[in-house]
């Protein structure tokens, strides 16, 4: 029994480099799907171990995006999560209170709604989360849209929203 446990542990340890290499390849593939020069935002994207309750998080003061990749996440889902966080980076880099008010009006969100939610809370029910989810939806389609403050924008609505991301799509 102890011998078989030791063999199983040794087998797992020997497999770790291959697993790490596979994860690195998947992470690079996800970054390669981002269809603009995200580096221009001057944010570092760092892949971390899974974190319960979070898929990714942006730290604007540090210009850092952390992605808590799960082993079962496919490349496209990772890319979508990265795009959501890059939406926050775009917001923090280019948006003003006036632009944010216009965003809420266009999206049918009460302009009195606070842009940000609480620190380290899910942002899907906030205007900031809607902005980030919409950016990810523009890049990767509506399948993963998780916003709750407004419906996913339709393909017909996208042209009206593109100017809000103008520095990226210009």
SSE topology sketch:
Layout: H1 2-32, E1 44-48, E2 56-59, E3 64-68, H2 75-94, H3 97-107, H4 127-140, H5 158-161, H6 166-169
Parallel strand pairs: 1-3
Antiparallel strand pairs: 2-3
Helix pairs in contact: 1-2, 2-4
Attribute tags:
3-stranded mixed β-sheet; 170 residues; mainly alpha; 6 helices; globular
Describe it.
The protein is mostly helical and 170 residues long. The chain has helices at 2-32, 75-94, 97-107, 127-140, 158-161, 166-169, and strands at 44-48, 56-59, 64-68. It has a three-stranded mixed beta sheet with strand order 1-3-2, covered by helices on one side. Strand 2 (56-59) and strand 3 (64-68) form a beta hairpin. Helix 1 packs across helix 2 (75-94) and helix 2 (75-94) crosses helix 4. The longest helix has 31 residues, at 2-32.
Helical/strand content category: mainly alpha
Termini distance?
Answer: 64 Å
User: What is the 3D form?
Assistant: globular
User: Whole-number radius of gyration?
Assistant: 19 Å
* Largest sheet strand order: 1-3-2
Q: Oligomerization state of this entry? A: single chain
Q: Beta-strand percentage?
A: 5-15%
What's this, in brief?
The protein is 49% helix and 8% strand. The protein is built from 6 helices and 3 strands; from the N terminus they run αβββααααα. The protein has helices at residues 2-32, 75-94, 97-107, 127-140, 158-161, 166-169, and strands spanning 44-48, 56-59, 64-68.
């Amino acid at each position: 029994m102890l011998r078989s446990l030791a063999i199983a542990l040794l087998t797992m340890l020997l497999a770790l480099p291959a697993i790490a290499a596979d994860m690195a390849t998947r992470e690079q593939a996800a970054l390669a799907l981002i269809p603009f020069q995200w580096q221009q935002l001057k944010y570092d994207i760092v892949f971390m171990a899974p974190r319960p309750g979070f898929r990714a998080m942006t730290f604007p003061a540090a210009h850092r995006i952390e992605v808590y990749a799960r082993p079962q996440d496919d490349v496209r889902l990772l890319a979508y999560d990265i795009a959501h966080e890059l939406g926050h980076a775009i917001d923090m880099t280019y948006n003003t209170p006036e632009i944010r008010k216009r965003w809420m009006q266009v999206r049918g969100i009460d302009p009195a709604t606070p842009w940000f939610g609480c620190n380290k809370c899910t942002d899907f029910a906030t205007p900031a989360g809607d902005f980030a989810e919409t950016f990810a939806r523009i890049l990767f389609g509506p399948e993963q849209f998780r916003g709750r403050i407004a419906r996913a924008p339709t393909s017909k609505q996208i042209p009206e929203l593109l100017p809000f991301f103008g520095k990226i799509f210009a």
